[in-house]
Amino acid sequence: MAGSSLPRRALGRRLRGYRVQAEKSQLAAGLHIELSPQSIGRMEDGQKVKICTAQIRDLLDFYEVPEPSQGRDEVLLLWQEVKDQAIAAKLAGTTKGWWQAYTDQYEPHFDHYLGLEAVATHLTTHQVVLLPGLLQTAGYRRAVSLVGDPNLSADALERRLELAAHRQVRLSDPNFRVNFLLSEGVLRHTPGGRTIMAYQLYHILELIGSRPNLSIRLVPLDAGSHLGLLAQAFTLLEFPPLASHLSEPPVVYVEGYEGGLYLERTDMIDRHRRAITDIQRVALTEDDTKQLVQQLAKEYGA
After folding, report:
1. Which of 5, 140, 196, 300 is 20 to 30 A removed from 29 (C-alpha atoms)?
2. DSSP letters along 139-154, please?
3. 118 falls in which pLDDT band (50, 70, 90)?
4. For the whole model, what pTM was predicted?
5. pLDDT for 78-101, tens place per residue?
6. From edge to edge, which strands make up the β-sheet containing 122-127?
7. Pairwise pLDDT comparison (217 vs 9), residue with the higher score
8. Cα 162-165-170 angle, rounded to 5 deg
């Protein structure tokens, strides 16, 4: 859990909820405990902020959260968990997540995603154009990287491949369940050429059915109408209970050319769950998926 933002995210969400309920601005909250409004905003977003227990209690008083109350106890439990995690990470020398050694190789918005992926226990991704990073071979990753930046240096490219390989280590974790729902169109695109794609498909064939925590299913182009056509590409991440036994809500991540969106509202999560159910309805079984991937691999040749 080193580098995990889960307790801080949960703490920030609850404090934001109480602030909004009390009709207080970030400026007013910051002035009350002698922090900038920007610091209040960062804290509510689950980012690290220098703050002490007394200031947390002062905020709860300012937001008129009664004492005693379950809500107040939950905030203080989360705050204790944040402190405990910080102490443990410092003793272990892991105050930053491993991915932050590669911040020069990904866009700033992706840092948050990598932190969430590192602690998620269940990930479901629907992709319509490119394979997700967790499935990409080095050849495929190299080709995609060079499309985005044809002048990428050899050193930078190798670091991107290292980052991708490090992410894929989690696929060996039996406690990390991953469902890949891929449009057939994903396998029809051939970044880097047909030979690279053939090797990529053979890699997918090795994974299908080989690990109980992984599921790879294709949605054929002639599947007809389904919600995936509207939802497009997205990833749903689900998390383990916190040490305080509080639950951390799922997050839907949607990545675009100019950045990423993190969706946390219950109605948005529910809509994407419905989309997943409908996509699974029209997706091929794993056996049929394997047959189609084998067919395409032979077409591309290696």
Report:
1. 5
2. HHHHHHHHHH-TT--H
3. confident
4. 0.79
5. 898 888 777 766 665 555 677 778
6. 214-219, 177-183, 122-127, 234-238, 251-256, 259-263
7. 217
8. 135
CA–CA separation, 246 vs 10, rounded Å?
A: 9
Least Cα distance to 96 among 106, 104, 107, 85 occurs for 85
pLDDT digits (tens, 9 = 90+) for 248-267: 789 999 998 888 888 888 99
**CA–CA separation, 200 and 193 (whole Å):** 11
Both tokens of 240, joined, read: 């383990």
283 DSSP assignment: S
CA distance 126 to 183: 8
Cβ-contact 257, 212 below 8 angstroms: no
* Cβ–Cβ < 8 Å for 187, 199: no
The one-character DSSP state at 102 is G
